[in-house]
Write a structure and sequence with these properties.
The structure is a homodimer of 223-residue chains.
Chain A lengths: L15 H19 L4 E2 L1 H8 L3 H9 L5 E2 L3 E3 H12 L5 E6 L3 H12 L4 E8 L8 E2 L2 E5 L3 H8 L3 E4 L3 H13 L4 E4 L12 E4 L2 H19 L3
Parallel strand pairs in A: 4-5, 4-8, 5-7, 8-9, 9-10
Antiparallel strand pairs in A: 1-3, 2-3, 6-7
The structure holds a DNA duplex (22 and 22 nucleotides).
DNA sequence: AATTGTGAAACACTTCACAGCC
DNA sequence: GGCTGTGAAGTGTTTCACAATT
């Protein structure tokens, strides 16, 4: 299934790991822009991002040669380029499903600061939650999900519903045209290929941390 | 620096990727235990966890031969073994720092259900938050951090404070003996090696999802 | 017959080292 | 001289394929 034809060499497959680092670079660059820094080297960017300079150069090179040898990268132009690559140069909307404690916290977190991806609507199944206002958005009943997604042009979704409801909601989100889901439910979502799911599971994270905390202890003090 | 001496063969380094999957297996096994299933094959476990059967067998084999060929794995004994490996066979406590919306949501999420890792104390810098009660725990001022960690024997911390405060708090946590930090602040923490940090950054996750949502779109409908 | 445990191959990602360019 | 861009080497992880075991 691999076709290493190097006809025009453009558009080789970009590693997922690279994609996940681009927003990190962008965040640093935006801070630099505020500080009116015009040029930055990969070494300095490495110091500020915690990613090695070789890695940074390689990541950026996948998309073309943005730097100037002997000089560095232009902060403003690189930031612009990264925003464009990520699709953040035009407004990107996300719907939030689930207005429990976690959902509410996520909505507030996202809307209080100015973020590249904005939550544009909030849904909940519970009639008791519908009508509540969270950071200027009124919680809507699930019925209007498809219509609102179409109307707002939202591409992403944040899923913060209880486990049992998650798969069903995910199906509707995909049907409605959502292409990326950030899933906080402790459920392995089944979605068609082409839809990207990012899983965040608090319990799992804590439990894997426990491994290092428990085992590692005896290494701290020898003897 | 590699010393592939196979003297006693035990204790080869365990891949981080493996450690992160163990809690997934454990979760499935615990559900199976409730359903009174006694034996499970790696193929069936694969179906239920979304991880391939070869991967499961390899992961488990790092810690010894837990299965029976031709039969499968004993659900109860494997669950017990995994809890022991992860250090979850005795109570594991976590302190939560930051009682904002996110921190509150995390505390409630964790304490409402019975989790393997339990939040045992909540701290906040803001005097207005101190004294609030969240799921049976009273929010304490940051001053008592070290003392409470020592008293409770907590090994883990959940960090949900604003970016600027994160590094300072992390330093105190490490000093106090915390060995794993789940960090929700948008900051790259500097910690001594031996302390494990797991970063969860909502904005970064959404922004990398945006890449697939934006680019992928034209592939959904051809022509 | 079924299923585990595991070397070997394949793949993914990072680091090294340096040629190329300003 | 300094810094980028990139093949090559190295490391980490997954998949394959099958011998071993019940």
């Amino acid at each position: 299934m691999s076709l290493p034809v190097d006809g025009m060499r453009r558009r080789q497959r970009i590693p997922e790991a690279t994609i996940k680092r681009l927003p990190v670079y962008l965040r640093v660059l935006e801070r630099l822009q505020e500080e009116e820094v015009a040029i930055i080297s990969s070494a300095e960017l490495a110091r500020k991002s915690g990613i090695t300079s070789e890695q940074i150069r390689k990541d950026l090179a996948y998309f073309g040669a943005f730097g100037t040898r002997g000089v560095g990268y232009g902060v403003a132009s690189l930031a612009r380029r990264l925003r464009s690559i990520l699709g953040l140069d035009r407004p990107m909307g996300a719907v939030l499903v689930g207005a429990g404690h976690l959902g509410t916290a996520l909505a507030r977190y996202n809307r209080t600061r100015r973020q590249s991806v904005q939550v544009v609507a909030i849904f909940d199944q519970d009639p008791g939650k519908v009508g509540q206002v969270i950071e200027d958005l009124t919680v809507q009943p699930l019925e209007g999900l498809e219509e609102t997604i179409a109307a707002t042009g939202a591409c992403l979704a944040i899923l913060a519903v209880p486990g049992p409801a998650a798969q069903k909601v995910a199906q509707r989100l995909v049907q409605a045209g959502i292409e990326g889901i950030l899933n906080f439910s402790p459920v392995q979502l089944k979605v068609p290929s082409g839809v990207q799911v990012q899983q965040i599971d608090l319990s799992l994270e804590l439990e894997s941390l426990a491994y290092y905390a428990g085992q590692g202890r005896h290494r701290v003090q020898e003897g």
